[in-house]
Automatic annotation (TrEMBL), chains A, B:
Protein name, per record: Uncharacterized conserved protein YndB, AHSA1/START domain
UniProt signal peptide: none
Native organism taxonomy: Bacteria, Pseudomonadati, Bacteroidota, Flavobacteriia, Flavobacteriales
Tree of life domain: Bacteria
Chain ranges of the Activator of Hsp90 ATPase homologue 1/2-like C-terminal domain: 11-135
InterPro entries, sorted: ASHA1/2-like_C, START-like_dom_sf
Organism this protein belongs to: Flagellimonas taeanensis
UniProt similarity note: Belongs to the AHA1 family.
């Protein structure tokens, strides 16, 4: 099994970071504008990625596996690219001084392939978007995300 | 063993990307301005990180283990944070259409710790700096790098 892991620190109260992770509106403001579904535990959120011209590039369905107020958000991917199905994204939060620390893991990849390396880089871009959203009020969700290679 | 892996695509000839990775001047233009030493195979490069006020934050020594023109740069870390010693950074290059694809790995971490997650995020930031350097002529090497948490 292979994991992508990242650490970011956000200068904001933990409750604001949690809100951006635990709600459909929050996710739509840093990951992809086309986020729909229900963010309650046991329900499914769909994230869709479009080109700037509005053409669909891809989508994922994720089951909200666990929510712990101001502590943890856990998604389990049930639809999307083959490599993502069965993987988990987990955000663990804690406070350190004036920062909220996000320990992020996209865990349980079957193997480390070139697409994993692409996704690792994209997660970093989206976590930066999350940081900017909470700190400044403005994220860069898809399709306004930074493009990092010829895949996206 | 744990690996950090990232993929970036740079709209530029492969030779320009290689030059930015295989020379002291190149590394100083995207990773840290304070890069010194000798970039020949078997020699050692030192990268030092300073605060904006000029105070040293940390440094690493890396042995240039392999250089393959327009294909590969391989560093082996011999000094620096304890977790880095004995690890390897490898950049594999290939062309795809008008992009040079960089497959990056910071390999052979003894374990995946919180500092690994921090470094994964920072490598993404510096690879973005490399991309910007080669595409636009301007990177953001330390101390002008994007800060991502309370550690750096």
């Amino acid at each position: 099994m292979t994991d992508i892991i990242h650490r970011v620190g956000i200068k904001a109260p933990i409750s604001e970071v949690y809100k951006a992770l635990a709600s459909v509106e929050g996710v739509a403001s840093w990951w992809t504008r086309s986020t729909t579904g229900n963010s309650a535990v046991g329900k499914t959120i769909r994230v869709q990625f479009n080109s700037k011209e509005g053409k669909e590039i891809g989508s994922m369905d994720m089951l909200v596996k666990a929510l712990e107020q101001d502590k943890k958000v856990h998604w389990h991917f049930t639809g999307g690219p083959e490599e993502w199905i069965g993987t988990d994204a987990v955000f663990n939060l804690h406070a350190e001084g004036d920062h909220t620390i996000v320990l992020f893991g996209h865990r349980n990849w079957k193997e480390a392939v070139e697409f994993t390396a692409h996704c690792s880089m994209k997660w970093a871009i989206f976590l930066l978007s999350l940081k900017n959203l909470v700190e400044t009020g403005e994220g860069s969700p898809s399709p306004d995300d930074i493009k990092i290679d010829n895949w996206n």
